[in-house]
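Dear U.,

For the methods section draft, I wanted the exact inputs and outputs in one place so we can describe them consistently. I've listed the two proteins in the order they'll appear in the manuscript figures. Please don't edit the token lines directly; just add comments below if something needs changing.

First protein:
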Amino acid sequence: MPLEGHARDDLRATFGAELVRRRLAQGLRQSDLAGLIGGAARTISELESGRRAPSDRMCRRLAEALERGRDPVAAARTEVELIRAAGPALVVFARRRPPRLRRARETEEARREIDATIAAERARRAAATAKFADLFEGELRAQARRGPVGSAAEAFPDRWPRVPPRRGC
């Protein structure tokens, strides 16, 4: 499915960048990856540049090719990450039959791992933000005890470099 404008740029920035990063991490050229999935190098080029929207089947084939020789959960995790990177541009085909139970378990395990990673990163960022807010609040209270100040250098004397005034400019 050809894309234009902002949709193309968004897909290139998300899915295309993720695919390029994973392909280069494996040391593969576009033609190598195309051979592994049984497609053409032009297809890989179009996916990476955002000119073609990926399908759920293509994400699965790409994940299996990129994670060949590794455990099935790694391939399922890569598939889920590629699908999430594709976002609303993902083309979903109607399935004739449900996925096999083992594959469904692997995909669910991969989703749980990804969600746990995202939750841990959010918690780390929230803790860092809270720490910064506490430090900032402490500095504001210290400043209030010192009284009004005329400049940032006076407000934060230990953080502001002292620069001698310029003469005769």
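Second protein (the one for the lower panel):
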Amino acid sequence: MRLFRADPAAPHHTRNPSALTSFVDEVYATLSGLFAYAAVLALFAALGSYLWKQLPEATATPVPAAAGWSLAGRQAPAFAVSRLDPRDKTETYEIFRHPEGGRKDIFRWTDANGAPAAELEIYRPGGEAMGSAVTEIAGRLDPGGVRDLEAAGIVDSKFGSVALLRPARPDGSRACLGFLKQADAPDLRISGWTCQGASLPAQRAAIICMLNRLTLLAAGNDPRLAALFAHAELRRTDCVTSGPPALSADWVIGSENPLLRGAL
């Protein structure tokens, strides 16, 4: 009988498949880690891109500068501005509420190029601290620009006399015109600005027209607010968009730079 001796190298050959399997497992584990790392990087990149795209939309949304105000998307409109011409500028209407009870109804108009053209705010304060009206108008009139306003006369509207304000510019260049009307009963502040008109008289006329076209839709169980607008309607005049504005006959407010009459 022929005897076969065991090959001393045989044990070495029997361990090769196990070593190869371990190597393949290590390669797969390394590749899996790389893929997982790449997937995490791709996820962060996609998330960063999404947030970056959302940032311009968030910064472009105009909101009141004071903290605590939030957009009330489901509130019913309380005011309206009648349109005389269907070709009027694009209008947006937003309502902001404060936790302390304040409410701001804001109209905004843009021109044909999408640039801001005018703004009207009706502010009914609640228990919150009211900021300076002049400072707020300056910030809305020229964001990031001139914050010093100077008096620009007074005009007469259906709500009575309205103070006019404009940015103080040393170079004398034409600026948009702001306005402010404060009522005591009820506590109500009407303010805004306009860039419509190539001259100061034209801008004054545009403000008078804007205020005369403002109407009340719902008083919200506030009889004083309803009475204010009912009384204002009795004073309303036709909206004249051309020609000299309807200024008071008083010499103090009859022109931009009034002169004293008579000898001193």
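Candidate sentences for the figure legend, describing the second protein: The mean pLDDT is 75. The two ends are 150 Å apart (CA to CA).

Thanks,
Y.
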